[in-house]
């Protein structure tokens, strides 16, 4: 039987063209296929290189940190999307949602393009730098020392664990946890907080190519968020309808938020007065922005009842820990550790 | 005086309760010691244009209307004759028929007078009210109308300054000229949102959900999250009767 018509009026036999995910898939095909290399050709690196070299070391450090977080983050979400989210989309709890599975291919494609954009951009504009890509090749290299040093790396580890577990068990509560850390926290709070920071820093460091790329990235991420909210809403609706295997979904979502929200402090540390914040991104503004996002996503979009005081308390505690930590020292520690690991791996290779 | 919200009197009760609150004292130890911890509460969108004297709670206005009723015919005439043109306009606009059928003309006049008075928006009180009428406005109503005149900025906003230091609140006052002060923190919201807070809503929740706007070192407020919460809780525990 033909399905309902779409905006463009097409109907199909197997595919439900009236599905939200069909719509996302179609939008992804239309908007998500911007060509990274073409963008590089069209806008060029020159102006960004010029501006970059005119920045003070402290300013460069801030941008480097922000983009390193993005690079490691995009890489992690790309990996977890192709390995785990694709399988999660096919889980029985989503009722053979063919359109969601179709959309996931677009989703994964865009995440890999985000990595492509960032990796090439950083190399071409900011110059050659050792990101220890040869280490831990299963995850595309070791995490960049500054990302590891602030603690931001932990959230990507957690995302890897929770998505892997959910892909394996395909249990609705496990899936709720995985989608929460992935779409609500990493994409919803950290990436969106990152876009906000990119926007703000561009007032002091107007890097045209970077802004161009991020305009595309944030549009793509808007669709990713829509998908995340829709998928979680479906799980919550089934829980509220009393379906036994969905019980615990809402609590799991809120618990994952409480557990992982301190990552906001790790991420924001580089914009605090403790590091002088030369590009004036302003940690206070970022915190309020993130607070509003949390409210919008969890209380409004998902209609849950999360407690702001708990969230605020956890972020404040982590922020305190960050203040007490010597980040430069931690970066050195990770560099040394990586170098030693390199030595060990080289020795192991030689022994083969 | 009853603790009408918003008013100087309510603010003073709040200050006293805050200064005596153990939870606040414990949570805000050190607050404002090495930084400016003063707060400015900004209440915007006070419905002064929309609210008329007749809309105010009866407890506030009953006395004024009783006084007008109790005037002798001569006294009433004198009051009527000295009215401002702005009042005369309102008087001409109200319908005096119906309510007191069979009553004499003088009594109908008085009904119309009361009705005309009831239609005066609070924002217009300073231009409509005249000295002879003012002598009949006493008690809480007199004090509140004087506060409106003294402290409302830009037609619908009121600023309250609280001095907060090391667990204490030594002063809390309405501010006629907010540009003369620059407190460390500012909390701004429409009047209606403040009434929700006074009725017990959570201040952190209100800020995070963008219903209230917090200006200042937000990180500090997060580190003193329990103090902020206690400030909200004390507001919820301070008796209030709402003007609007
Ligand atoms: Fe992405
Ligand atoms: Fe994404």
TrEMBL record, chain A:
InterPro entries (alphabetical): Ferritin-like_SF, RNR-like, RNR_small_fam
An example Gene Ontology biological process: deoxyribonucleotide biosynthetic process
Gene Ontology MF terms: oxidoreductase activity
Pfam families, per database record: Ribonuc_red_sm
Top-rank taxon, per record: Archaea
Protein's recorded name: Uncharacterized protein
TrEMBL record, chain B:
SUPFAM superfamilies reported for this sequence: SCP-like (SSF55718)
Source organism (scientific name): Natrialba aegyptia DSM 13077
Superkingdom as given in the UniProt entry: Archaea
Lineage: Archaea, Methanobacteriati, Methanobacteriota, Stenosarchaea group, Halobacteria
Name assigned to this protein: Sterol carrier protein
